[in-house]
Design goal:
The structure is a single chain. The protein is an alpha+beta fold. It is built from 9 helices and 11 strands. It has 2 domains: about 5-95, Release factor (Methane Monooxygenase Hydroxylase, Chain G, domain 1), CATH 1.20.58; about 105-344, Alpha-Beta Plaits, CATH 3.30.70.1660. An 8-stranded mixed beta sheet has the order 2-3-1-5-4-9-10-11. The protein starts with a helix and ends with a helix. Residues about 230-235 and about 290-300 have low confidence and may be disordered.
């Protein structure tokens, strides 16, 4: 048996495994249902709803079309471009793995320095650069919403919006504590230093019906911005700070030139944080029902980045690791993203 034939058999086996995940008959029925709905005369009266339906229809059509194309090409076993077929099957696998309710949404990604002063602030800036590079590689759009520089270097915290295809699905496993081990560039003796930073990833939900925020629960404050909104932000109080009294959650926004725009962004972040709390409560309840209780929270360490005395980046949940630490910190996160998706 030739090497190509072995590869074809492996790809066929993987495609058949994905066939069980894709639920082809159900997807085809759903495509017909959405197509019929799109033909109704009043379909475009609610433009936002119609757009969401058309996007879902296009996604289902692409998924089913890709599966049938791959099945047809693999059946004759004559296609010599095995690498192309493998890439298409990997693409189909990713689409199937990213079929969650919120996976297609944009995100608010925040990074907060842990204990360690300047070291932790520098690590926060390194992580920000890593996610910025990864987003650029994916063709996503980013916008800084809020940032607080460190006293000597780096960032105490930074929050950015990331928009694009499947952003939340790709980044949702990045939330948690990230640990860096290296020789300190801020110490004359170049001592080995361990730093921590916390990453938050929240989906941007256009309408969160289950989250109700009462006016009396909000404490609002405006202040002069030091952000990226232009010259105007330093002359008037355009930045906003909102505190949610029941939870003591505080959010800020200072990226926009006008106070109302910043207030809208801050409320959006607050709603996302309250939604995340509810989701964590649901997960904890499910774990208790199943008899397994794990600590739920942002503080769980998920990944270790070692730059000295050896170089290794290791995900502590999946066991996936890479020795090319510089490449990872330069935005090459594909291996860790895929490992996280496949661990579900």
């Amino acid at each position: 048996m030739s090497e190509d034939q072995i590869n074809i058999n492996d790809l066929k086996a993987k495609l058949m495994f994905l066939a069980g995940k894709i639920n082809l008959a159900e997807k085809k029925a759903k495509i017909k249902e959405l197509e019929q709905a799109s033909l109704k005369q009043d379909f475009w009266q609610d433009h936002f709803k119609a757009s969401k339906i058309m996007q879902q229809l296009a996604d289902f059509q692409e998924e089913v079309g890709l599966f049938e194309e791959l099945k047809t090409k693999l059946e004759p076993g004559l296609d010599s471009d095995m690498e192309s077929l493998k890439q298409k099957i990997d693409k189909l696998e990713t689409k199937i793995l990213l079929s969650g309710k919120y996976d297609r949404l944009a995100v608010i990604l925040s990074i907060h320095a842990g204990q360690g002063g300047t070291e932790a602030c520098d690590w926060t800036q390194m992580l920000f650069r890593m996610y910025l590079k990864y987003s650029q590689n994916q063709g996503w759009k980013t916008q800084i919403l809020d940032e607080h520089p460190g006293e000597e270097a780096g960032l105490k915290s930074i929050t950015m919006e990331i928009k694009g295809n499947l952003v939340y699905g790709m980044l949702k496993h990045e939330k948690g504590t990230h640990r860096l081990v290296r020789l300190s560039p801020f110490n004359a003796d170049s001592l080995r230093q361990t730093s921590f930073a916390l990453v938050e990833v929240l989906p941007i939900l256009e309408d969160i019906e289950e989250i109700e925020i009462k006016d009396d629960d909000i404490q609002f404050e405006s202040f002069r911005s030091s952000g990226h909104g232009g010259q105007n932000v330093n002359k008037v109080s355009t930045a906003v700070r909102i505190k949610h009294k029941p939870t003591n959650i505080v959010v800020e926004s200072q990226s926009q030139r006008y106070q109302e725009q910043n207030r809208k962004i801050a409320m959006q972040i607050l709603k996302a944080k309250l939604w995340e709390i509810k989701e964590r409560e649901k997960q904890t309840q499910m774990q208790q029902i199943k008899g397994k209780h794990q600590l739920a929270g942002w503080g769980n360490q998920i990944r270790s980045y070692v730059l000295h005395p050896y170089k290794l980046v290791k995900d502590l949940r999946t066991g996936y690791e890479e020795t090319g630490a510089e490449a990872v910190l330069d935005g090459n996160l594909d291996g860790f993203i895929q490992a996280g998706l496949k661990s579900l």
